[in-house]
Design goal:
Oligomer: single chain
Low-confidence stretches: none
Number of strands: 0
Structural class: mainly alpha
Strand content: under 5%
Amino acid sequence: MSLRTKFDNLKKVHSDSVLAQNRSELFGRRPYASSTPENPYSQSENPYGQIKTNSGITRQEGLLREDTFLRRTEGQLDEFIGRGMAVLDNLVEQKGFLKVLFVVLRGLLFLLFLVYCFLLLVALANSSSPFLQLASLLLVRH
């Protein structure tokens, strides 16, 4: 081999080693060069790990806000459902009371009707008109 080819080969090996060294240094500075942690979304000390979104908060802060919102919404929905169930129970109870009240009032109305009829018959019997006395006697018999 000539000196020129040896020199070219050594130069190529040197440039390949420099290229490999630069590449490893470049990839070593990136945040994902290290092994992935168990929880990739956990807090990291690396400033590159916390990417800001358009609203100016990090992804983790956004997820925490969303989780808080969902929990608060779930609590409010449970409260509304509980109130609705309490109102329904109250309405069912009031319906039962109204049924009992209706039966009692119907009985009282019937009793008042009987009293009215009795007083009407007494008034007809005590009247001076013979026609009304005859009508009261017919009503009492039947």
